[in-house]
Amino acid sequence: MVSSVPSVKPMISLDFETSVLKKEKVSLAGHDEYIVRGGRDLFHFLPDAFKGIKQIGVIGWGSQGPAQPHNLRDSLAEAKSDIKVKIGLRKGSRSFSEARGAGLTKENGTLGDIWETVNSGSDLVLLLISDAAQADNYEKVFSHMKPNSILGFSHGFLLGHLQSTGLDFPKNISVIAVCPKGMGPSVRRLHIVQGKEVNGAGINSSFAVHQDVDMVEPLTLPWDGQEYKSDIFGERGILLGNVHGIVESLFRRYTENGMSEDEAYKNTVECITGTISRTISTKGMLAVYHSLSAEGKKEFETAYSASYYPCMDILYECYEDVASGSEIHSVVLAGRRFHEKEGLQLFQWVEVTRHACGRIMSNYLY
């Protein structure tokens, strides 16, 4: 049975007001949206944009952790701002050595413990720890925030978790989100490499104000809730779930049917991360089809038609699990499960497949 396509809801207005930077209207797929363009020529606006903020505390050193504080620090320095950027890590974290290697120290006030960083004068706290860690520690984070400070996110997961449990953020703080559409290393690399050569180069981001304590009426850009749904669905449906599952299952199928591990690797990992990925990224899926021979196009059509509706059913189920809160709940439980039983062996076939792919990959890389 094929699931029916749900009715399309009216588009939510994505308009906003800005008193510092210039907003611009763009048309996407027949709908008007508003954006703010970045660029190094706008750095001189940063002191006004961060008016009233003397210290930015960044909690965590994961994907976004090393990137965003360095970008902030560099940009603020170029704008001749004296705003301090301080990193907060949990006691005993192995990331302390990496942070010190990046020039952050306790002595100069740019590195410290999580809780000391949150409540030692941070006017803006960027919470960049993992989803599961946010779910387990948000109450303590809230209790350490000083009144009228700002809590910032790069992902709407905690909002989804709170909504799914009937809770909300404290009313005495503002809550914002700036969510880059790329991994931390890319955010940093584009800032320090391409960004220095091409003004405005960087990663697109969603931004939202979920709660503003300075306003009489609550201010909510409705799509801040859509961000976590879109992001988690994209991870499960494409980036972390779908692609990974396709590669592993095809690798097993090929090797079980007599194909060598080298050939199976070429037909899975190397194939999907090479030419196909670059073509889709720059020209779209249709360009892959047009690049094939007549025989290849027939094979593509057969495979595409056979997989389209089963994939649609699975992806709708993924989205519904995210939208309903079920996926968020499972993420929280999984984080606690693996934290409590670190080193728990996964299913044997998963380990065998991953070790085989990893072994072949190392041969190609080294």
Briefly say what this structure is.
The chain is of the alpha/beta class and 366 residues long. The protein has helices spanning 46-49, 67-78, 95-101, 114-119, 131-144, 157-164, 184-197, 224-239, 242-256, 261-273, 275-283, 285-290, 294-324, 326-340, 348-365, and strands spanning 24-28, 31-35, 55-59, 84-89, 111-113, 124-127, 150-153, 174-180, 205-211.
Describe this structure in words.
It is a single chain. The protein has 366 residues and is an alpha/beta fold. It has 2 domains: 24-221, NAD(P)-binding Rossmann-like Domain (Rossmann fold); 241-291 and 325-365, no CATH class. It is globular. Helix 5 (131-144) packs across helix 14 (326-340) and helix 9 runs antiparallel to helix 10 (261-273). The strands form 2 sheets. Strands 5-4-3-6-7-8-9 form a 7-stranded mixed β-sheet. A two-stranded antiparallel sheet has the order 1-2. Helices cover 51% and strands 13% of the residues. It has helices spanning 46-49, 67-78, 95-101, 114-119, 131-144, 157-164, 184-197, 224-239, 242-256, 261-273, 275-283, 285-290, 294-324, 326-340, 348-365; strands at 24-28, 31-35, 55-59, 84-89, 111-113, 124-127, 150-153, 174-180, 205-211. It contains 15 helices and 9 strands.
The total of beta strands comes to 9
Radius of gyration: 23 Å
CATH class of the largest domain: Alpha Beta
- Total helices: the number is 15
End-to-end gap: 47 Å
Name the CATH architecture of the largest domain.
3-Layer(aba) Sandwich
Number of structural domains: 2
Percent of residues in beta strands:
5-15%
Give the quaternary arrangement of the chains. Answer: single chain
Strand line-up across the major sheet:
5-4-3-6-7-8-9
Give the ordered list of helices and strands: EEHEHEHEHEHEHEHEHHHHHHHH
Q: SS-based structural class?
A: alpha/beta
Task: Point out poorly predicted stretches.
Answer: 1-8, 216-223, 340-350
3D shape: globular
